[in-house]
Amino acid sequence: MEIGIVDDVQLFVKSLSLLINTFDSCEVTLETTSGEDLLQKLSLMKSLPDILLIDVSMPIMDGIKTATCVSEKYPSIKLAALSTNHDDFSIIGMIRANCCSYLLKDMHPTELEHALREIYRNGYYNADAYNRDSRRLMRQASMKDEDEFTEKEKKFLELACTDLTYKAIASKMHLAERTIDGYREALFEKLNVQSRVGMALEAVRRKLVSV
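Below the sequence we write its predicted structure tokens.
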């Protein structure tokens, strides 16, 4: 598989490129340090990368703008966010910009290799699901979505995939914050995830919400 990397720290780009090139059947074919340069290089390439790793925090053209532009012009490329930032709202922004995964820069190389293969094969990788009990995940996946979620839970999921805080979601749904906390915990359980990010990724994958 062919991989592209865009990150404003050149040393990180080079180091990550060297690492990925040690993975079996992986080759980094595009390196760049800005969204603007990325778009220019993509326009000149005869063979596009299969996967593009996009840094969230870049000057001028940030990760969200970059992912949005690439997704519109090159929909065949699978996009994955890459960052040290754990902020839910930034991550959800990248998901809404059509990133199929959110990878942390301090993740173990073994998990990174696994993530790239999952993205290449399935077009999706959720670290929450990867870290949870596989038997439970299979059992949950076999259930029908329409039987598994109530209308209010689906509405909560839709709002959770925006930049609204949980308090604002409670206000918008005219519910107590404690009730919203209950929805969140129930959906974490049903979707086999451990975070708002994982919940949003899984909701998008199952087409419970549209972005």
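Residues 203 and 209 are 6 Å apart (CA to CA).
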